[in-house]
Amino acid sequence: MGIKSFDMTTAQRRLAAALLLAWAVPLTGCYTFHAYQIGGEQGREAGNQPATEWRTETRHAFLWGLVRQDLPIDNCQTGAGKRFNIEEFKVRTNFLYALLTVLSLGTWVPLEVSWRCAKPEGPAGALD
Question: What is the pLDDT of residues 85-124, one digit of tens each?
Fold first, then answer.
């Protein structure tokens, strides 16, 4: 008795390829750069206590960065206009954004940018 070989039909190969692609695409092509202040409370980065929740916007660069959408951040200030720092930010891409970048040969690069603001300084002379 010999071992029978398994021959897939063209339809079975296409179905297997489609299933593999449907499984693999959501797992690939997403990366994030995360920048944050070090030395939070108790010396832990996780101890940072931001003043705002994450805010996210998608930005685009065209013609290899010659034309780009900058990101003016307007929520890191008090009602009186006193500004305070950005605690953390992230720059992220995903499979679709990477595919668009490759297909356009880098002439269009969409990215997702997220940030949250630091707590403003307390009044001078405040007791800790």
Answer: 788 888 888 888 888 888 888 899 898 888 888 776 666 5
| Beta-sheet pairing, 108-117 with 67-68 | unpaired
- The strand order across the sheet containing 67-68 reads 31-36, 86-93, 108-117, 55-62, 67-68
Query: What is the distance between the alpha carbons of residues 36 and 112, in angstroms, rounded to a whole number?
Result: 17
- The number of angstroms, rounded, from the C-alpha of 102 to the middle of its chain's C-alpha atoms is 18
